[in-house]
Amino acid sequence: MIPDFGLVGNGEMLARVRADGTMTEAYYPSIGFFRHIIQSQFGVYLHGRDECLWLTSPDFHVEQRYLEDTNVLATTFVRPNLWAQIVDFVHPEFSGATRMLEIRNTGSTPLKLAIFHAEASSVEDHKGQFGYNVAYFNRLGYHAVRYRGHPWDNAVESQIVWLISGEPEPTSFQCGVSFEEHGEHLDAFVDVRDGKLKENRYAFGDPTGTTTALLWERELAPGQSTKISVFFVPGMNLFDAEDALERVKGRHPDQLLGDTVGYWRHWLETGKRSLPNLDNPRLEALYLRSILLLKLLQDRKYGSFIAAPTLEPDYRYCWPRDAVYEAWALDSCGYHEEARLFYKWCQRTQMWDGVWYQNHYTDGRRHWAGLQMDQIPAVIWGAWEHFQLTGNRSFLVEMWPTIERAAECVVGRIDPKLGLVYSEQDLWEETGGYLSYTNAACVAGLFAGSRIAREVGQETDCIRWRDAAERLKKAVYAHFLQDGSFVGEQQPRRKFHMRSDYDLDISNVGLAVPYRVVPADSPEMIRTVQRIEAAVDYPIEGVGRYASDLFVGGNPWSLSAIWLALYFAEMGDLKEVNRQLDWCLKHAMLHDFLPEQSHKQTGTPCSAAPLGWSHAWIIILLQKVGRLLRSTPALWPEPEIASTK
Amino acid sequence: MTTTLVPIDGSQSSQEAMKYAARSRPQGDLLLLYVAPSARMADLERGKFLLENSRRQCEVIARNVRIQTRLEIGDPRTKLPEVAADSDADLVVMGAYGVNALPHADRMHPEASELSEEMHRPVVLVLPTGQGIFSRTTDNECVDEEEEQVAGRA
Lengths: 645, 154
Fold this sequence. Notes:
The complex is a heterodimer.
Chain A (H helix, E strand, L loop, with lengths): L4 E5 L4 E5 L4 E5 L7 E12 L4 E4 L6 E6 L6 E7 L2 E9 L6 E9 L5 E9 L13 E6 L4 E6 L12 E7 L4 E6 L10 H4 L10 E4 L4 E11 L4 E11 L2 H12 L3 H21 L7 H16 L23 H13 L3 H14 L9 E2 L5 E3 L6 H16 L2 H20 L23 H20 L3 H22 E2 L2 E2 L36 H12 L23 H14 L2 H13 L10 E2 L6 E2 L5 H19 L15
Antiparallel strand pairs in A: 1-2, 2-3, 3-4, 4-5, 4-10, 6-7, 7-8, 8-9, 9-17, 10-16, 11-12, 11-15, 12-13, 13-17, 14-16, 18-19, 20-21, 22-23
Helix pairs in contact in A: 4-14, 5-6, 5-7, 5-14, 6-7, 6-8, 7-8, 7-9, 8-9, 9-10, 12-13, 12-14
Chain B lengths: L2 E5 L4 H13 L4 E8 L4 H21 L4 E8 L2 H11 L4 E5 L14 H9 L4 E4 L5 E5 L5 E3 L2 H5 L3
Helix pairs in contact in B: 1-2
């Protein structure tokens, strides 16, 4: 089960804030790497009552929401006599998380209290290990310094340094060793319990790490409130971090918040113009949240998208296939620059032989060298869609060497005997074979490449790739159409790695949507979808990937439901579309984040969340639904049927 | 001969759990288990690496312990009780926090706590500090060894 949470970021940094107000982790200097465990929490000590209250405790009623049309989170805490709110955001220009806390005395008597913030960060923590982390308090700057490294080097040799600072200046501080119960190195989480801090300046902990706390003494008359802010500011070295903190503290926290809210609202204006009229506020909110989320998942420097900000499973990488769909979704909402930046990333990361590997770090370095052949034509297909949306011919000219290498790679991998493309791995990364989804992507990619070739005046390639696509399309029918429906692999009953067969798979729908190799309303495709639906029977309903799926026990996926809904939308069957959409909404997390999977017994979200390409597809789906409801023409040209006719 | 089951997930807690088991039961059988979420190569390779790494560490800690490793695919929530029953483990030693460990933010990782309920055999949960914090001796009897310490965190 994944606890509910929200995300804040700016394309360089991404931070997760749990629904109970705990900031749990952050990613910097890119949105996928490094992962830093944060564990930042606020609390109050009530003098006179000798009571220590963490805002995360069950004493408070807690609600979290995004400020309208932004990626700014507000978490509210209410209990008798006390109201508090934490506003979390990352400034669009300056990387660093700002946590603004406001506390109000809602009782009828004055309150004397100590407000405290405690954190147990672990810098550059990849595997959930705490390791060798150092914390010291800089009295000159009045901030805590966090780094992973030798305790004697004072952070100057560290790769990444975090500074934790309070505004206004805190009354006292503590640096402690995690789980230390006594002495001057007392764990800061323990030290705050009595409302006083020991002011130890230096701590290092191995292997359990270190903690720090900041504390502010306040007196609040009835109805009075107070505000404090805590900044988590990272840098690639100590001086970098100090400069960054200076820039952040050069503005009032309210001004930082105003900048951030203004940025997001302005940025979302474009997306709002594409918002279809769905007669359903929840779906419209999901549409806008998906746009905002995709922006958070895109690296602002390189243009790549991470699949999801999760470690288990580890999806902090860019899969070209997922990213093509994400770029396409943003493109279709009018964000052409974001899509363009992604294709620039594709240009830079393509190998000499035309391939993109399984996944990459956001800066383009290869992470895993597996080869999923559907990803290569997907980039060609996406580039053509970008041109369709923008009419930008110079983009095609610029992309031409990339397109040419990719298309030649696909053509070169067509088996001369079978006429199909072999892939070492399927899109689920589980098994290799002659796969229907991969070959559908190859057909669509080659047709797209052919059209691109014509646009840039490469007539020979245009004809050659078109002919190759036509032959491949015939081979798709010849090999994958078995007993009246389409199968997932050419020999679906042979022995496969980790699955009982490759007959029915949700990815078979890819033949019709998005790749349009097979008409959605053909009897064979209708029968294929009917068989896919009949093959699954989960206690919580929904659709999975395939019947013998073992992934986290084999569960229904939001992506599967969305793909089926897309198919039904293609068929004009709004009733079935709504059935799948209802299931997605029912199993969405807080803020309408779509998890990869929902547990088949309990319905709780599991595996990764929010999954980027689920949100990309929901945008495409809702646009389609909007057009069906209004019977209005497309805002952009529909992907063409995979042929040149 | 006793069999101790230790689920490994790469977290600090699970490493400490493995060391705890090797130290506390140096003469028995030690079954190290990794449950890969999927059959993807990346998940399987990670599991193989973690199991092999853990096996070597155990051999250093307790030379007489007989170590077995097992790699399963699926949902840890169902696989752990299954393997515990299948191997007839008389003790399960597991980390109190998973890979997404938040020992300061959480009293205990909720899944570890729930899993210990589902094992139907003695379970020891181990903190990142290496302390066993909770043991279930039978289906109905619980012994809170150091619950007070942990309860104070959040």
